[in-house]
Amino acid sequence: MAAPSPEAERQRDKDRTRADILEVATREFADKGYTGARVDEIAARTSTTKRMIYYYFGGKEQLYIAVLERAYSAIRALEQQVDVEHLAPEDALRQLAALTFDHHEANPDFIRLVSIENIHRAEHLAQSEVLAGLADPALGGLTRILERGRAAGRFRADADPLDVHMIISSFCVFRLANRYTFQAIFGRDMLDPARREHYRTMLGELVIDYLTAR
Amino acid sequence: MAAPSPEAERQRDKDRTRADILEVATREFADKGYTGARVDEIAARTSTTKRMIYYYFGGKEQLYIAVLERAYSAIRALEQQVDVEHLAPEDALRQLAALTFDHHEANPDFIRLVSIENIHRAEHLAQSEVLAGLADPALGGLTRILERGRAAGRFRADADPLDVHMIISSFCVFRLANRYTFQAIFGRDMLDPARREHYRTMLGELVIDYLTAR
DNA sequence: GTTAATGTACGAACTAGTGAGTTCACGGTA
DNA sequence: TACCGTGAACTCACTAGTTCGTACATTAAC
């Protein structure tokens, strides 16, 4: 009778329902934290019911883990964007730093989830088979950049990829994760668009100056 | 009847009761977060009862704010320790960075409270009349160090005290606040004692290299 | 004896999770 | 093609257990 119209509004759609729940749950968990988030609230904002959350995910904790997995998997697209091979090591590094800077700024919910997960000592992340040990994809490119910079004698010999990654991350994460207390204490909004280019440039210089010092 | 013995176990002691509650509450809030913390649990770990928490602090939120105020006030001792005037700008800066590094490492509960407060968008900190606008005491010394370094032509002209403070803070805070997810993803414990001196030195070089580049 | 401090028991509201029944899509079958 | 069996997707109402906060009684101190 009814033609198979995949774009028509379907009342029963497994994937759509799951995706809907996940999206709403991401906002709720990022907003209120794991303990502060309410399953009833997530259900209310969904086009489906609470029973479906338990049907598809099992419980609050498993839903939260699914949210973490989806959020982390979104980062993996980052690696492909770095043009490692055709740039001078300094420029490649500056580009990687700027890319990380932009990515963090564009994904405040992800940063909040990471902060929340650290408050919980990564106990949920440890339960995820998908995520445990899944290294940041940006590391591969960074390793190659440092190798080339060292081989050319332009970077310090003791430069460690993970250390450099930590410097870049700490700067970008701090700017988002601690902006509220920083603003309350010092009266400066680290996310003020007028200061954005300043911070973006500063990060690049910070890393390059450290690697090329002496 | 009983002689006024201030050290004897007193059954009624306003200050002692308050201090006891505050200390227990600090651990509970830092451990579980604001929403995760339980008033009954705090009361149970105290030598007094839940009724006293409401008697002295009014409620869970006011208790949490009192905990924040106490934690922040503990930092104020930091400023006096920097020997700003008798050291070369580079050495004074290195000392300040190392001091911040040590202080953060020694006060993980404080870092957790700051993370938690940022998840809540500093809404509680904003309610505190004591804390709102109370700038980090380390800033004063830092400003003088940078002035001397610039005057001597050894530091870059555009060096801003708050920016430098942000660099130092982000490094130190990240090392503590994000250690769990960092460990889970990369398998490296940023708090491993064997790596402590490496990070401590690295922070000093990072800041100095940035300020003296070119 | 008056007031500050303390102990106990309780309640109203909330919260994660579930039991049980309903509707829909779809393929086989007479 | 009309019917039916089946399992997946879905709805609704309910509960057992928490959790913050408080009413009320009690005790120590001056």
From TrEMBL, chains A, B:
Coiled coil: none annotated. Transmembrane segments: none annotated. Keywords: DNA-binding. Residues 15-75 form the HTH tetR-type domain. The keyword DNA-binding applies. Pfam families: TetR_C_29, TetR_N. Residues 38-57 bind DNA. InterPro entries: Homeodomain-like_sf, HTH-type_TetR-like_transc_reg, HTH_TetR, NicS_C, Tet_transcr_reg_TetR-rel_C_sf. SUPFAM superfamilies: Homeodomain-like, Tetracyclin repressor-like, C-terminal domain. The keyword DNA-binding applies. This is TetR/AcrR family transcriptional regulator. It comes from Amycolatopsis melonis.
